[in-house]
Write a structure and sequence with these properties.
about 130 residues, 4-stranded antiparallel beta sheet, 11 strands, globular
């Protein structure tokens, strides 16, 4: 049984940082590209960041570029999302996602949720102004 368990969310103030972590089990972690998505209140789930199977290639939503960093540790079956300079627009439930395909060379991430094989339960991030 595949499980993706997120942690690290919480309530912070604008300008603060958070690091999310997602521990995967029940799958061969290094065989999956990994991603993070955010669902803001009243909105659809949206792509935030993704990392290739070996960690060498990353993709970011425009809103995350320059502030967020996705990374992975295949030895620990864990993917991270370092979020700096948080603002209230970053508020939402953050979901970890596993994709058996390859994100290397993808030209667009707008429809990336269609390629996800497994989802975590999510962790709440709230940024106050």
């Amino acid at each position: 049984q595949v499980q993706l368990v997120e942690s690290g969310g919480g309530l912070v103030q604008a300008g603060d940082s958070l690091r999310l972590a997602c521990v995967a089990s029940g799958l061969t972690f290094s065989s999956f590209s990994m991603g993070w998505f955010r669902q803001a209140p009243g909105q659809e789930r949206a792509f935030v960041a993704a990392v290739s199977k070996n960690g060498a290639s990353t993709h970011y939503a425009d809103s995350a570029k320059g502030r967020f960093t996705i990374s992975r540790d295949n030895a620990k079956n864990t993917v991270y999302l370092q979020m700096n300079s948080l603002n209230p627009e970053d508020t939402g439930v953050y979901y970890c996602a596993a994709d058996s395909g390859d994100v290397v060379g993808r030209q667009s991430m707008g429809d990336y949720s269609d390629y996800i094989d497994f989802w975590g339960q999510g962790t709440q991030v709230t940024v106050s102004s």
